Description:
Blueprint: H1 17-35, E1 39-42, E2 52-58, E3 61-74, E4 83-89, H2 90-98, E5 103-109, E6 114-118, E7 131-137, H3 142-159
Parallel strand pairs: 3-5
Antiparallel strand pairs: 1-2, 2-3, 4-7, 5-6
Amino acid sequence: HKTRGRYSLVRLPKTKRTDQIGELAVTYTQEHIEQHGWKFRRQSESDYGIDAEFEIVDSNYVTGKVCKCQIKGMQLIEWKSDIVSVQVKISTYNLWKATHLPVIVFLCDTSNRQVYWAFPLAQSPAPTADSISIKFNRENLLEISFESLSGFLHSWFAAFSGDNILWEVPYF
């Protein structure tokens, strides 16, 4: 009788490889965010589409500008024409739409610790779809496009701040 490991003959809980990849993806994303001085907070409960949040820090001042994030992990990203897609349930997408804070989706290649970002609400699902493909562009590598992400978020907060009259205009 062959065994794979020293514990295979004893009945013990076994972790899934996908759980390990997911945890590594969150850790590597946290490292990238914190390298820029921003605050990163993991969700402590089951996430349902939100894995963490981060707060923008400007010149060592916490700003109160908080973003939610979903973090996906892959052991090795297979790019096609500098694009890769990740499927997400429509219910998760709808949660992001209902959230009154910006939501950023990160995709981490755990083999090389590279993290990419996308703004999921810039993409629209088909009306009767069960899922949506969130597209990541190879250009949005966090370590080289952090300023683009920062600029995007600053413009989002400027557009939806309490000082902006458009925040007060109801949908019609």
